[in-house]
Amino acid sequence: MLESSLRIGAIAGIRIGVHYTWFIVFLLLSSVLAAYFRETHPEWSGVAVVLTALVTTLMYFVSIVLHELGHSLVAIARGVQVRAITLFIFGGIAQTEKDADTAATEFYIAIAGPLVSFLLAGLFYLLKLGFVSYSTIATEAFNWLATINLVLAVFNLIPGFPLDGGRVFRALVWRFTGDAAKGMQWAVLGGKLVAYGLMLIGALVGLQPGMLFNGIWLIGIGWFLFAAAEGSRRAYFSSQLAAHVLVGDVMQKQVPTVTTDMSILHWIDTQMLLTGQRFALVTEGGQIVGLITLNDAIQCPRAQWADTPVCEVMTTFERLYTVKPANSVLEVMEIMREQNINQVPVMDEATVIGWIDREHVLKILQLHSAIGR
Ligand SMILES: [Zn+2]
């Protein structure tokens, strides 16, 4: 969902990006703030109103980045890699490489964000006190920032997944029952209740005169939370499933092969287009020397397919990613995602005994979840 974001920089190796929906929010928030300042301080000049609104909005987003950095730095300290922090319409999100593997890690990562927001609220409050006799503009801006950070900290502590409070709740259930899955189920249930609650409140608020926009906003947040809770539940349980399915049990044993001297065109016409298999192991004198895929073939200009042997475009054996039959499907899926590949040969000692294919694995996992085991 947040793939197409604009990179604005990096902190501690973490990519910071903004999704295009962020610009909508930036404009909305700065105009709401400008309207608020104009109403409460009619003595301010137009330029002062607009500049204060823009700078305050920017500081608000800096606060969100710091909140997400709080999560991220604790995650990294606890051995969970963080890929990116992305700002989008409903705030910020820190994308981690994997889930926390202990309840304690989950707890510390989750609590770090709201703690940063509480600290920022305190800091902006002190700044407000410091400026109160010098500048109304600074006082107003710091006052708003202190309040919004306090609201952020408190709202995020509501115990519904994927809010931070939901993650804290999940960690606590996990810690006291010893069951990570139970923690997830409870936290997701909490998340859905919060989502329904927000949508209901949004509907009631929206019916009040002049409050339509606020109502729609709350319904939007509720809807987003519901989708995120359900999406996280699915991702969690399918990865649980994938961790228990072994490569050796689901691999395909008929390994398509070609010899090094076969032309790309010959391979495509006599194998790929007939079997639907987009790859083949390349052998020479019975030894496996590489792997050719449709993607490799496409790298070569079509006019040269008839005269180019597969060995010229294949991935050589030394550079191949392989797995063992005892690996879990989850491990293979991670390799496929990280390396952006769709097929992985399965090796037992020095022999290829089968292969695993992304589509095939997904189909099997869907069947597992359809019959509930
Ligand atoms: Zn957070």
UniProtKB/TrEMBL annotation:
Domain CBS: from-to ranges: 251-308, 314-371
Residues of the active site: E68
CC cofactor: Zn(2+)
An example molecular function term from Gene Ontology annotations: metallopeptidase activity
Residues the entry annotates as binding Zn(2+): H67, H71, D164
Any GO BP: proteolysis
Pfam families recorded: CBS, Peptidase_M50
Primary location group: membrane
Keyword annotations of the record: CBS domain, Cell membrane, Hydrolase, Membrane, Metal-binding, Metalloprotease, Protease, Repeat, Transmembrane, Transmembrane helix, Zinc
Highest taxon of the lineage: Bacteria
Protein family membership: Belongs to the peptidase M50B family.
PANTHER family: MEMBRANE-ASSOCIATED ZINC METALLOPROTEASE M50B, STAGE IV SPORULATION PROTEIN FB
Protein name per its UniProtKB record: Zinc metalloprotease
Organism: Nitrosomonas aestuarii
